[in-house]
């Protein structure tokens, strides 16, 4: 009975006018997640019903993402044949999501390299007011508050944005795999198995979610270490470098341990 009623339920939900609240939300609402507040107010005393669900964001639509990546993949394969090279999925994904990743990366670098590293400097200058009666201490206090506020307002939205990009990459690649699978000839089907396609669509593409969340830290973390080491060296001398060296020394040990655990 549930299987028979499911299509009707999905059809009604699809035709619903319950627009996703983030679809037309402004930048302040997105940064503060204010667009989600009506859902909490409406359902604070009752359980969520199917009618309370919203439509998928238009930018998350699998057909839309599938059409985009399929068109880009066709262009990539045509260029690969022209230049006698293998088509690259990485090039396709960069063309499709490069602008979104770059914008998010700029905000992340401003937060991690600007706001986060500025906080201890401003705090030190503010504390210096009590020891040497430095002037303009209120400027340091305002700067500390602004840096903290900027970090708070950008960390969660950028993290969510990275997760969203990873999900869109996964959906696009899954759609591309599905479209390729239903077009395979009998000869092509003989060279692969259903299990391989299921593994690609379920396990392998899921790595994009994790990669998009932490890939930017491969760029920002070394810069943070370099800048932070320099600032600490100015304050405490060579002792700071020794402490950082000990931390860096443990990185290859952790990599080696993770490989052993993975086996």
From TrEMBL:
<dbReference type="GO" id="GO:0016020">
    <property type="term" value="C:membrane"/>
</dbReference>
<feature type="transmembrane region" description="Helical">
    <location>
        <begin position="24"/>
        <end position="41"/>
    </location>
</feature>
<dbReference type="Pfam" id="PF00664">
    <property type="entry name" value="ABC_membrane"/>
</dbReference>
<keyword id="KW-0547">Nucleotide-binding</keyword>
<keyword id="KW-0067">ATP-binding</keyword>
<feature type="transmembrane region" description="Helical">
    <location>
        <begin position="137"/>
        <end position="160"/>
    </location>
</feature>
<feature type="domain" description="ABC transmembrane type-1">
    <location>
        <begin position="105"/>
        <end position="263"/>
    </location>
</feature>
<feature type="transmembrane region" description="Helical">
    <location>
        <begin position="92"/>
        <end position="117"/>
    </location>
</feature>
<dbReference type="InterPro" id="IPR050173">
    <property type="entry name" value="ABC_transporter_C-like"/>
</dbReference>
<feature type="transmembrane region" description="Helical">
    <location>
        <begin position="214"/>
        <end position="232"/>
    </location>
</feature>
<dbReference type="InterPro" id="IPR011527">
    <property type="entry name" value="ABC1_TM_dom"/>
</dbReference>
<dbReference type="GO" id="GO:0005524">
    <property type="term" value="F:ATP binding"/>
</dbReference>
<feature type="transmembrane region" description="Helical">
    <location>
        <begin position="238"/>
        <end position="257"/>
    </location>
</feature>
<keyword id="KW-0472">Membrane</keyword>
<dbReference type="GO" id="GO:0140359">
    <property type="term" value="F:ABC-type transporter activity"/>
</dbReference>
<comment type="similarity">
    <text>Belongs to the ABC transporter superfamily. ABCC family. Conjugate transporter (TC 3.A.1.208) subfamily.</text>
</comment>
<keyword id="KW-0813">Transport</keyword>
<keyword id="KW-1133">Transmembrane helix</keyword>
<keyword id="KW-0812">Transmembrane</keyword>
<dbReference type="InterPro" id="IPR036640">
    <property type="entry name" value="ABC1_TM_sf"/>
</dbReference>
<protein>
    <recommendedName>
        <fullName>ABC transmembrane type-1 domain-containing protein</fullName>
    </recommendedName>
</protein>
């Amino acid at each position: 009975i549930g299987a028979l009623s499911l299509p009707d339920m999905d059809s009604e939900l699809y035709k619903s006018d319950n627009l996703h609240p983030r679809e037309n939300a402004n930048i302040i609402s997105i940064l503060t997640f204010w667009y989600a507040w009506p859902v909490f107010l409406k359902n604070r005393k009752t359980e969520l019903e199917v009618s309370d669900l919203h439509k998928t964001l238009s930018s998350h639509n699998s057909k839309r993402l599938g059409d985009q990546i399929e068109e880009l993949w066709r262009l990539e394969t045509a260029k690969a044949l022209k230049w006698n090279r293998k088509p690259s999925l990485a090039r396709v994904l960069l063309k499709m999501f490069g602008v979104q990743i770059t914008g998010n990366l700029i905000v992340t670098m401003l937060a991690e390299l600007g706001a986060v590293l500025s906080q201890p400097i401003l705090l030190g200058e503010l504390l210096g007011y009590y020891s040497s009666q430095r002037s303009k201490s209120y400027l340091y206090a305002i700067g500390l508050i602004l840096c903290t506020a900027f970090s708070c307002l950008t960390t969660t939205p950028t993290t969510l944005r990275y997760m969203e990009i990873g999900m869109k990459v996964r959906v696009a690649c899954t759609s591309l795999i599905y479209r390729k699978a239903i077009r395979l000839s009998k000869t092509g089907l003989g060279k692969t198995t259903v299990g391989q396609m299921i593994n690609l669509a379920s396990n392998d593409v899921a790595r994009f979610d994790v990669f998009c969340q932490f890939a930017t830290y491969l760029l920002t973390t070394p810069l943070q270490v370099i800048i932070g080491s320099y600032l600490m060296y100015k304050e405490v001398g060579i002792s700071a470098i020794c402490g950082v060296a000990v931390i860096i020394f443990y990185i290859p040990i952790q990599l080696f341990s993770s490989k052993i655990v993975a086996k």
